[in-house]
Hints:
Blueprint: E1 3-6, H1 16-19, H2 23-27, E2 36-40, H3 42-50, E3 54-61, H4 69-75, E4 80-84, H5 86-93, E5 101-106, H6 113-117, E6 122-126, H7 132-144, E7 149-152, H8 162-167, E8 177-179, H9 189-197, E9 201-205, E10 212-213, H10 217-221, E11 225-229, H11 238-243, E12 246-249, H12 261-271
Helix pairs in contact: 7-12
Amino acid sequence: xxxxxxxxxxxxxxxxxxxxxxxxxxxxxxxxxxxxxxxxxxxxxxxxxxxxxxxxxxxxxxxxxxxxxxxxxxxxxxxxxxxxxxxxxxxxxxxxxxxxxxxxxxxxxxxxxxxxxxxxxxxxxxxxxxxxxxxxxxxxxxxxxxxxxxxxxxxxxxxxxxxxxxxxxxxxxxxxxxxxxxxxxxxxxxxxxxxxxxxxxxxxxxxxxxxxxxxxxxxxxxxxxxxxxxxxxxxxxxxxxxxxxxxxxxxxxxxxxxxxxxxxxxxxxxxxxxx
Length: 275
């Protein structure tokens, strides 16, 4: 049975994880694999629960206790449920809650690269992408367009940051993902070699004169293909492009120089899907 706790002091230390701890502090709250992340909105929290993530505490507007939050309270068991009016919670968090509910959840140990790639025909590799909105949008496209797994390089932003989770609409809990290397020096050398060992051809998404068009039939014929996407602004590192099997471009019109990486990922995932 959940304990419903009225928020009377927004400075109470038990509320720190919802408002005063940074994403890095949440991630490393105890051991890295036992850290915390924040899921926002009933739909996203429900997908996290479906995926087996353990709730630690709920924070919700009072009206949600008899609304969309009621089912979550029941599903989350005996975790504490902190509640107050919308204005009080906005003062605590600094923003109005999306759909009026936050849930602090425990992280799970990440799978290995081998586990994510087992039986996969198409995976996405995200190199040094730092914007959480882009990370979330890429995961949503990956889920919708049949990507079997996502691999993030050591310098890539955390897919479980609150904004990434929210923008993904919880699909970050549905698409298998892990880090491809723990140290920056393991990418691209070790990481690309690991993909080759697992039978993948690698396609670097880059606008270069020596690239092939994304609709090249050779790409569609590849049984296993890793689609490598680069950071905002600079794109993929030169050494990454050089080490990949293909350099692939999305043809541009009207002198547009490139697409945002999230938009480019959706085009690439659809066109390079396993036929």
